[in-house]
């Protein structure tokens, strides 16, 4: 985990992602508010699978926030939880005599993470046992049955070809067609990127860099889950319904950089190449950070109008009556 955290590709990818989101970083719409927390969740979940207790607490908090923000985050979060739990079990069960002791998460940290999960999900839990179908029941129904008319595999591969190819929306490329639907692309570019990352993972595995290799497996598995999740979306597919794919696509490049770093570092005559890559990563981080500082609040004029009017409107309402609030969209 410390190696991943120290790799310049991580802050660079996060900065590029934030720069591509632009003003959406401050937009309080539920498909947007979980994008950056999803990146944090995926990294925390991976760190927890490596035995880092505090990151387990971070994964519980960030993962809960994402799923409760928008149902679209659920498949990726669920797959990441299962994958990291399996990886953790394999690491603990596969330790041999003479190996370095596997770091273990303290019992009090496990209890704290479980208590935090119960606290964060207390609202839906109380609602569920109250006799209503509840949000948890609706989530289960969504996972079990999916959409009545899903977009299917062909559309999923084309949308994923755009999300995971080059250039990708998380890098700033357009993610919407003129019709308002999600942008598509042939899958060949995405397959080439995944093949290169997988090759770097194989090289890392052969060199004994098992952590880097497993991180590649983890991220490629998330890509597969993303394709499956996209195929189950209802027949109307605007780009915001696949915004959760951005952090996964960013981590594909992080995995490739991390797995490939060891191979490059052990070969002679690549100092300039490695130095240039680091310079690009640092430059992208600085540019992305500066871009994030210039984000404007969405609908600021409308918000000021609401603030000016809300007090008078509230004073005029009858506390014993019920009202329906409706939106007049532009």
Structural account:
By secondary structure, the protein is mainly α. Helices cover 68% and strands 0% of the residues. It contains 15 helices and no strands. The chain has helices spanning 2-6, 9-21, 30-33, 35-49, 53-69, 74-93, 107-120, 122-129, 134-145, 152-164, 188-206, 210-231, 245-265, 271-293, 300-316. It starts with a helix and ends in a 14-residue tail after the last helix.
Quick rundown:
By secondary structure, the chain is mostly helical. It has helices at 2-6, 9-21, 30-33, 35-49, 53-69, 74-93, 107-120, 122-129, 134-145, 152-164, 188-206, 210-231, 245-265, 271-293, 300-316.
How is this fold's topology laid out?
Layout: H1 2-6, H2 9-21, H3 30-33, H4 35-49, H5 53-69, H6 74-93, H7 107-120, H8 122-129, H9 134-145, H10 152-164, H11 188-206, H12 210-231, H13 245-265, H14 271-293, H15 300-316
Rg result: 22 Å
Mean pLDDT: 82
Largest sheet: none
Distance between the termini: 47 Å
Question: Structural class, please?
Answer: mainly alpha
Helix content: 55-70%
Outline type: globular
Q: With helices defined by DSSP (H or I, 4 residues minimum), what is the helix count?
A: 15
Would you list the SSEs in sequence order as H and E? Answer: HHHHHHHHHHHHHHH
Strand content: under 5%
Low-confidence stretches: none
């Amino acid at each position: 985990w410390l190696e991943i955290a120290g790799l310049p590709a991580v802050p660079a990818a996060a900065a590029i992602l934030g720069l591509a989101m632009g003003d959406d970083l401050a937009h309080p719409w539920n498909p947007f508010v979980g994008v950056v927390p999803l990146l944090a969740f995926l990294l925390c979940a991976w760190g927890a699978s490596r035995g880092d207790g505090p990151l387990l607490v971070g994964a519980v908090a960030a993962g809960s926030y994402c799923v409760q923000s928008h149902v679209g985050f659920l498949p990726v979060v669920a797959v990441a939880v299962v994958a990291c739990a399996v990886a953790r079990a394999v690491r603990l069960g596969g330790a041999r005599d003479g190996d370095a002791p596997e770091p273990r998460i303290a019992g009090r940290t496990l209890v704290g993470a479980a208590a935090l999960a119960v606290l964060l999900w207390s609202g839906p839990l109380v609602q569920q046992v109250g006799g209503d179908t509840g949000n948890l029941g609706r989530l289960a129904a969504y996972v079990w049955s999916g959409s009545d008319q899903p977009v299917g595999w062909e559309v999923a591969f084309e949308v994923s070809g755009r999300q995971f190819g080059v250039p990708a929306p998380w890098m700033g490329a357009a993610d919407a067609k003129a019709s308002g639907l999600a942008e598509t692309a042939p899958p060949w570019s995405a397959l080439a990127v995944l093949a290169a990352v997988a090759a770097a993972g194989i090289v890392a595995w052969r060199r004994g860099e098992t952590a880097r290799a497993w991180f590649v497996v983890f991220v490629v598995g998330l890509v597969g889950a993303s394709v499956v999740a996209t195929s189950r979306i209802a027949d109307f597919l605007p780009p915001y319904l696949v915004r959760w794919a951005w952090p996964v696509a960013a981590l594909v490049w992080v995995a490739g950089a991390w797995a490939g770093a060891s191979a490059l570092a052990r070969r002679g005559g690549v100092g300039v190449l490695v130095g240039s890559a680091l310079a690009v990563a640092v430059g992208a981080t600085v540019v992305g950070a500066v871009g994030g500082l210039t984000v404007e609040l969405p609908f600021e004029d409308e918000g000021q109008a609401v603030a000016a009017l809300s007090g008078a409107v509230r004073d005029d309402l009858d506390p014993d009556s019920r009202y329906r609030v409706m939106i007049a969209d532009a």
